[in-house]
Design brief:
The chain is mostly loops. It has no helix or strand. The protein has one domain.
């Protein structure tokens, strides 16, 4: 969690697990194998990149 990606500080979440984040919490995810990620939200949500240059939606 936080605004700086640090893979060495990442914690594994076993298959079938779940977790909750407060609104606006910056976070990162890493996957070493094929993964299905399901997101469930209450109300509207969006993706905001910490570094706007990393946002693939803005490439031309």
């Amino acid at each position: 969690m936080g605004e700086t990606a640090d893979r060495s500080a990442a914690k594994a979440i076993p298959a079938g697990s779940y977790f909750a984040l407060p609104p606006g919490m910056a976070h990162f995810a890493y996957f070493d194998e094929e993964t299905v990620l399901q997101l469930t939200t209450n109300g509207p949500w969006g993706i905001k990149y910490i570094n706007p240059a990393d946002d693939p939606r803005k490439t031309k």
